[in-house]
Specification:
Length: 401
């Protein structure tokens, strides 16, 4: 009965229009506020009881259960590479199975034209089919793809008949499972980051709300071949490592931060803005008019290591740019893809179509908390708030935000 009810709810949910879903989220949010006002005392008692009951191990179990439920909610067979995933997956399949960056066969097989991607017959000035996507997801998928390759060959040696072509179900399933595992790890590292600052079950409750009330659940359910969960995982790991070593200054710390932020940029180019946060905090926390010389004497070597590590990791993307497009760094989608002026500031936040606050009101609450703490001269929350502002400004320059 519960299963059939869940299926009905799932089907009904998918029939709701995008605009209707945005409006429902706002109405539900306002209704929740009203209920919270009426039943604040009881809600507080339930929260206190929950914090006493839950332990660290049970918190992990709850997060894992949330992950499994999201996996079940969006599960479908056969798993299909579609949308932007065609571009991301083609890097992996072409490099491993063909040993090149010629995507004619991948784009033909995966029907790139259905998703607004370049046609298999299109060519750049260098004679390659254009692929305007990052290579980071392919790098992170590689162990799962390799495992599928080894297992399929082993099964064939034992008398099986699996087509080892990079398209058969075993490859697609293992790769998509890798994305979901990265999503789970991202949730866990987010929880671990919150535990650095908050006691009790505040980290768990916050993590559950963030997972359910932001796009994380959508990408866990329905988009295993997009780059968003890879990015979420890497940013969560970077934030955890940085926050745990906030007061530590060493070459090892800055090298690891450079590698992590290089991987973040390699996965989603726009997320390179997160690489500004660690040095920005060091500047706010340590620099003053009285110690300018000593600050630069201390931090310049660290920043050099940080920048070098970042660019070493990002270098493969630049090499791919050079091979396919003929430039080391640029915008493969064309100049019109990104504007110089953030024209869509309000639309990004408030549009009924998919404005951030319209669809995910919990983020507004989070920002209020960051702003409140920043006004109380908390330098860390000021830097985290700047991280949001950087993303907001960048997204506001995109005509297709």
């Amino acid at each position: 009965m519960l299963f059939s009810g869940g299926v009905v709810v799932k089907i009904s949910f998918l029939k709701i229009s995008l605009r209707g879903l945005a409006n429902i989220s706002i109405e539900f949010f306002l209704f929740s506020l009203l209920l919270t006002g009426f039943f604040y005392g009881r809600i507080k008692k339930i929260y206190i009881l929950a914090t006493k009951f839950l332990s660290k191990s049970s918190s992990l179990l709850i997060l894992f259960g949330l992950f499994l439920y999201s996996w079940w909610w969006g599960y479908s067979y056969p798993v299909k590479v579609d949308g932007d995933g065609v571009g991301y997956y083609s890097y992996l399949r072409s490099a491993v199975m063909d040993g090149d960056l010629k995507f004619e066969n991948e784009f033909e097989r995966l029907e790139s034209w259905k998703y607004g991607l370049p046609l298999p017959t299109e060519k750049t000035s260098k004679g390659y089919v254009p692929n305007p996507y990052s290579i980071g997801p392919a790098v992170l998928w590689f162990p799962f793809f390799l495992l599928a390759l080894l297992i399929s060959q082993l099964i064939n040696l034992l008398g099986g008949n699996i087509l080892v072509d990079g398209y058969s179900p075993i490859f697609v399933i293992f790769t998509s499972a890798g994305t979901k595992i990265f999503g789970l790890l991202g949730i866990i590292f987010l929880w671990k980051s919150l535990r650095l600052f908050y006691k009790g079950k505040t980290p768990l409750i916050s993590t559950v709300f963030i997972t359910l009330a932001t796009p994380i659940t959508y990408y866990l359910c329905f988009e295993p071949f997009m780059s968003h969960l890879h990015s979420f995982f890497l940013i969560s790991v970077m934030l955890f490592f940085w926050l745990r070593n906030l007061e530590v200054e060493s070459y090892k710390k800055w090298f690891i931060l450079g590698v992590l932020n290089g991987l973040i940029a390699l996965t989603r180019w726009q997320d390179a803005t997160f690489s500004l946060l660690p040095p920005l905090f060091s500047v706010l926390n340590s620099l003053s008019f009285r110690n300018i010389l000593s600050f630069f004497k201390k931090y310049t070597p660290y920043f050099i290591v940080y920048i070098l590590a970042f660019f070493i990791v990002f270098l493969p993307q630049m090499i791919v740019f050079k091979i396919i497009y003929g430039f080391w760094f640029g915008i493969p989608q064309g100049r019109d893809f990104v504007g110089l002026i953030p024209k869509y500031l309000l639309q990004v936040l408030f549009s009924p179509l998919h404005g951030l606050f319209q669809w995910h009101p919990i983020i507004l609450f989070s920002l209020v908390g960051l702003l409140w703490s920043t006004l109380k001269k908390n330098k860390l929350t000021a830097v985290l708030l700047a991280g949001f502002l950087f993303q907001w400004l960048f997204n506001s320059t995109l005509p297709q935000w």
